[in-house]
Design goal:
It is a single chain. The protein is mostly helical. It has helices at 3-28, 45-56, 59-66, 70-108, 114-139, 145-178. Helix 2 (45-56) runs antiparallel to helix 6 and helix 4 packs antiparallel against helix 5 (114-139).
Length: 191
Amino acid sequence: MNYSVAVFASIGLLLLLAMAWLVFSATRRQPRIVHDGSPERESLHISNLPQIKQALADSDFIYLESQGYPALAKRIRKERRRIALNYLTSLRGEFEKLLRLGRMVAVMSPNVAVAQEVQGLRLSLEFSYQYYLIYFRLVTGIAPLKAIGSLSNMVSALTIRMETAMSELGERAALGAELLPDNRSGWNVSS
């Protein structure tokens, strides 16, 4: 076997192993979100997105390097990348919660079509693809600002769809309760 082919194959195998390690290490990492017990929504990704984009922008690093602080710029860039990775992990956790909620709504909904299930699978695959692409780019030092915004928008759109579906399901349940002929069990439904 040719020496250059063996070297090329071993480098390719090492890169493949590194990518697999990055993918599987991301699945074990849990986001550190502090809940204060308030009844507010847990979807904070929209309110944090501008800060994440600003933290990943190059302007601060360029300024620090121009002022003669390249080591500080490197340290801050590494810390901000870690914060962005935590944000990304949190975004993924929220997406997975929404998918579980979507499955529960689908079970309770009387007219769930196979097309909607396929659409959910497609959305899940699309999210996973974008998530791992952004994750790999962040780990390698590339700041994918537009891609992070796109992923956040995908979670927001799913949140809106789930809220709409829950509202429609609630309306159907209320209508169904009103249409019952009478209450023979002895419970007072009207109070």
